[in-house]
Amino acid sequence: MFLTISTTGSAQSPATDLGFLLHKHPDRAQSFSTAQGTAHVFYPEATEQRCTAALLLEVDPVALARKARGKGRGGSPDVALASYVNDRPYAASSLLAVALGSVFSTALKGVCHTRPQRAAEPLPLRVGIPALPAKGGTAVVHALFEPLGWSVTAEPVALDERFPEWGDSRYVALTLEGRQRLADALRHLYVLLPVLDDAKHYWISSDEVDKLLRAGDGWLAGHPEHKLITSRYLARRWSLTRQAMERLELARLAAADDSAAEEIDNAVDENADTEERPVPLAVRRREAITAALRAAGASRVLDLGCGQGQLVGELLGDPAYTEIVGVDVSTRALTVAARRLRLDRLPERQSSRVRLLQGALTYTDSRLKGYDAAVLSEVVEHLDPPRLPALEHAVFGAARPGTVIVTTPNAEYNVRWQSLPAGQVRHPDHRFEWTREEFRGWAGRTAERYGYRVEFTAVGDDDPEVGPPTQLAVFHRSETTAKGAAA
Ligand code: SAH
């Protein structure tokens, strides 16, 4: 059983930092004895530019069979033979996941005292597993890894290359590529390898639920296949699966804010009439926002109405942002945001870059002055229209960042959400939703009053008739001070 993890780097951030993050030195080959065999960790390549760590697990099928028998599993002679002569030594499986969990246990927790920043930031990663048993085939492999941000190459492995007519085996050769924090990548593998294998080779007890929820923290509750993952991981033991699903549901509820506009959008998104599972609108919105921030060259950024802090978290992952301030009126949202971002557990270098402030955007606030950019993502529609001028004054007049990015639903698009009754807004807390013309009108007037230039972008698929689901405006402060600007 074999798995490789590779990353790339440069002189400033060498790829060999992977050794620090994994707590295994690139110059040494090391062996560890695990419950099912011997695990070896070594580095086939380790340069500034490229570094690959390999985990090889040598399984002893005889010992394994003895162990299983010791647990009271007997059976017919055929079954007994199959437990000695099987694919265990070769195919990556739940055993490899167990080895991964024990050999890289500190890395799995995201702990790295020597390179805390590298542990906290997404790295360009490539994971290779040449033989992975995949129940359900390549479609399931895609459905499990893609929603987590991996780009997936899964090629079925022929049963026997000499006899193509025999067809494919139940194995795939898997390559995952993406920018991920190393700990997240390891936790994805730790959970999803046994899920794909769908045959646990050790006893399932209720502490497996804890292990699953711990390894799935932050990604499992929101995964579109969380049900499949949970039930397979827990070997279809329904009482445990139900227990896990209930706890995931609680985690989801805790993460849901009073104004969970984002979740509504996503729920509606899933019903959209597209063949492939669409990228959630909230994700596309954050992509558009970060692209606009990058284009503006911003490094000190306000996220006004930051909600649960998803955007703040994303910005935190990019060292280009030196100061990130999330502001929201809801203490509950800020509490959830602080927990999601693990502010209390971040190393000082990271935590000093981020602050969460409680505040109402309809009042001027001297703490918000002097930033490069401010984001108002899905916020303006939560204000009663008569309060909007107060927000305009506080943001464009008083805080006066160089760039302001505003996103809001496009009301015209609502006819495309099949599950949304005609004439309704997307979320009960939306006080209004603008058509493209209304938004452009408001943005143009606001820009003019406060001395900004404004341009517009579509977020999501731009429908030829009704436009995109989300509309985005980028305001750039003109150099001259305008009449409405506060001194
Ligand atoms: N920006 C996040 C959250 C949008 S939901 C996203 O794009 O997903 C709207 C958020 O705005 C909520 O968290 C709500 O508490 C906050 N909000 C609404 N009115 C506000 C006000 N007057 N001052 C500050 N925050 C406000």
UniProtKB/TrEMBL annotation:
> Does the UniProt entry include the keyword RNA-binding?
yes
Write out the similarity annotation.
Answer: Belongs to the methyltransferase superfamily. HEN1 family.
Q: List the Pfam families hit by this protein, alphabetically.
A: Hen1_L (PF12623), Methyltransf_12 (PF08242)
* SUPFAM superfamilies recorded: S-adenosyl-L-methionine-dependent methyltransferases
The name on file for this protein is Small RNA 2'-O-methyltransferase
Keyword Metal-binding attributed: yes
Query: Can you state which reaction this protein catalyses?
Result: small RNA 3'-end nucleotide + S-adenosyl-L-methionine = small RNA 3'-end 2'-O-methylnucleotide + S-adenosyl-L-homocysteine + H(+)
Q: Where is the Hen1 N-terminal domain?
A: 1-248
Q: Enumerate the UniProt keywords alphabetically.
A: Magnesium, Metal-binding, Methyltransferase, RNA-binding, RNA-mediated gene silencing, S-adenosyl-L-methionine, Transferase
Using the record's annotation, list all stretches that form the Methyltransferase type domain: 302-404
Q: Which cofactor does it need?
A: Mg(2+)
The record's section on InterPro entries has:
3'-RNA_MeTfrase_Hen1_bac, Hen1, Hen1_N, Hen1_N_sf, Methyltransf_12, SAM-dependent_MTases_sf
Instruction: Please name the source species.
Output: Streptantibioticus rubrisoli
Q: According to the UniProt entry, what is the EC number of this protein?
A: 2.1.1.386
What superkingdom does the record give?
A: Bacteria
